[in-house]
DNA sequence: AAGTGGTCTAGACCACATC
DNA sequence: ATGTGGTCTAGACCACTTC
């Protein structure tokens, strides 16, 4: 049992449940509450913060969804004893690399409006042949090429310049344009590099590549991006956390 | 706007919010509520079901977490216009294949108690050299080998027989033993097949393989399984749905 | 101005795990 | 028997979007 210090600011615009969740998360990450250790029960926690139980419950649920805590009826709430804790969230490769201090660099290979191929039209929910933006980029980390990225966006959604794309990740540009990504369907696989891919990625033909295709949807349920990417398997892998609900 | 038929049974042991979620999900999957279409607002829905608003909210949140719905303040709740809808959940390959009608078959290559190698000890949170169960299995779908699976479990947690493993998935056996999996950290990558792997999987040496390592935790936060697997990339890929919270 | 979801309260009863 | 989380109510006020 552990009682981390908790305080809430009722004048802050930050929701109360979120303030509590942040403080609990900080206590866990700093090791003030050890893996395997039990938290106070919800009622005590609520009393101690001066909040109602549903509000405290919402804070705890937030951390359960994040994979930091597990709850069991009749038992209590415990910290998961996991070592790694990186999850693939709804960010683009650029965001990931920037967050990890990887100095991402982008070379724009193509920036066009094309007629949507069948597969793309199907994924984006537009008629085949409708105009869509097509991007092809080569992503570096430091001096090393890392991935070859091909994206399609519904026509008129976003008209980025090559300069925009060199400086920012695609998802960053989408967010800046007021598009809030909510859901993505991804498929991850592997195959051998074609000659062209190998040359672009500074690898030899036939080396294994990781492939990822993704269709992303915004907060209105519209498909806003379809991507088909290949990564050098020697330098990249996907990490994710699954949480059973 | 759409008003699917909804009814709740207050004598059922199934929670009310879950009954509502199930009926909404069925209406969506049957196409009775089309992608992009808006649902009634929460208050109307609550009135119509004879439930309180928080209960209906919980039902909707459940479907938002599943990636079926998106919500936006001031706008409403809409059905996502996604075509694919398979997510990697916390199931094992055996479960996945069985659910897809893939007739899984398992050949047990090794079933031992060994001293935990450093990497395994670290992932399972046991001292290096502690006794752990080691399993090596070859998983087929129909006549074709699909994956080579290596797992480690903390000593004493589960003592399966080769017959158990031939008939059931590992996760199924864990559940039957009262172990409830809650969280898993996975890493997905790719590399070339070694000669031994190629032979076991009926491929040629050097073909690309998908790799997946996973550490799974139960509802008490304990690490209960570490797995290191390789899949034939020509016959398998991972599909998952990401939801921004 | 009207309508939507987001947050919050102060309780209540229940199911499950443990002792 | 006790303590835990799971579910549920009937409201309230607020922030955001759209018209």
UniProtKB/TrEMBL annotation, chains A, B:
A Pfam family assignment: GntR
Coiled coil start-end: none
GO molecular function: DNA binding; DNA-binding transcription factor activity
InterPro entries reported in the protein's UniProt record: Bact_HTH_transcr_reg (IPR050679), Chorismate_lyase_/UTRA_dom_sf (IPR028978), Tscrpt_reg_HTH_GntR (IPR000524), UTRA (IPR011663), WH-like_DNA-bd_sf (IPR036388), WH_DNA-bd_sf (IPR036390)
HTH gntR-type domain sequence ranges: 14-82
UniProt keyword Nucleotide-binding, yes or no: no
SMART domains documented for this protein: HTH_GNTR, UTRA
Keywords in alphabetical order: DNA-binding, Transcription, Transcription regulation
Family annotation (CDD domains): WHTH_GntR (cd07377)
Keyword Transcription (UniProt): yes
A GO BP annotation: negative regulation of DNA-templated transcription
Name by which UniProt lists this protein: GntR family transcriptional regulator
Natural source organism: Actinomadura logoneensis
